[in-house]
TrEMBL record:
One of its GO terms (molecular function) is enoyl-CoA hydratase activity. The gene is paaF_5. It comes from Zhongshania aliphaticivorans. This is 2,3-dehydroadipyl-CoA hydratase. One of its GO terms (biological process) is fatty acid beta-oxidation. Signal peptide: none annotated. Pfam families: ECH_1 (PF00378). CDD domains: crotonase-like.
Length: 273
């Protein structure tokens, strides 16, 4: 049973369900376009995920029939979207709060799963690229559509998208600014799986449950390697850095428990040590 946390805002509901943090965009009346209150909730959720050892992963989803339409074009980049004093005060000390919220910078150190129903356009597809495992409904629609509005995708798509899918497909998405169906996104390798409408959160929870059954130290180390040991590193250097992450994992109590449980033919009981 998920319990709503005090860090929730009116546009971003944050819940804990066992070892899983569930983060729900909650501005359906505006197609879940970004607002200061949404960004505030997202920022707080990701920092909590980093800090709380009882949380092993997070699922990002949304209320309504649109996952996220990105920037609120009705107000524009400089429009007044009703920022609270709390948001303004926090932005004074964390000037990149919006980029942290949107997973462009300082991504949490644990796996992020995505459950998309409906349209995920512009910023909706950009935030997708900051997640690790992605589930979409069969009628979901993606697209980095900024060029169609004379805009530039500032959340990192020109950098990340070409690393996550083939260059020519990334160029097609970014330069045409057209919609991409769930099946196309699956074929491109942009998402992991397509499920019936209304089933994305359930499917993401099943995946999260499997992650939570694994050793948390091992999972965090794998996430760190996936994120940081990219193709700009020579293979030998990347392997050395990977070994540096592996050492503490193999020396942990969890590693001993995992091998003991395998020998004894029982589920492992990991403690994160």
């Amino acid at each position: 049973m998920a319990n709503e946390l005090a860090i929730s805002t009116k546009n971003c509901i944050v819940e804990q369900d066992g070892n899983v943090l569930i983060v729900t965009l909650n501005r359906p009346e505006a197609k879940n376009a970004f607002s200061p209150e949404m960004l505030l909730g997202l920022y707080k959720a990701w920092r909590l995920l980093d800090e709380d050892d009882s949380l092993h992963c997070a699922i990002l989803t949304a209320n309504g029939d649109t996952f996220c339409a990105g920037m609120d074009l009705k107000t524009g980049p400089d429009g007044d979207q009703g920022a609270t004093q709390e948001f303004m005060d926090l932005m004074a000390t964390v000037p990149n709060i919006h980029w942290q919220a949107l997973l462009r910078e300082n991504r949490p150190c644990k796996p992020l799963l995505l459950a998309v129903e409906g349209y995920a356009l512009a910023g909706g597809t950009e935030i997708l690229q900051g997640t690790d495992i992605r589930v979409a409904a069969e009628d979901a629609i993606f697209g980095v559509t900024e060029v169609a509005r004379g805009l530039y995708p500032m959340s990192g798509s020109t950098i990340r998208l070409r690393k996550q899918i083939p260059y020519c497909l990334a160029a097609e998405i970014l330069l045409l600014g057209e919609h991409v169906t769930a099946q196309q996104a699956l074929d491109f390798g942009l998402i992991n799986r397509v499920v019936p409408k209304g089933e994305t959160l359930n499917e993401a929870k099943k995946l999260a449950e499997k992650i939570c059954a694994n050793g948390p130290l091992a999972v965090k180390a794998v996430v760190k390697s996936l994120r940081e040991h990219t193709e700009h590193l020579a293979e030998d250097d990347a392997m050395q850095k990977s070994d540096e992450l592996a050492g503490p994992v193999f020396g942990s109590k969890d590693a001993k428990e995992g091998m003991r449980a395998f020998k004894e033919k029982r589920p492992a009981v990991f403690v994160g040590e």
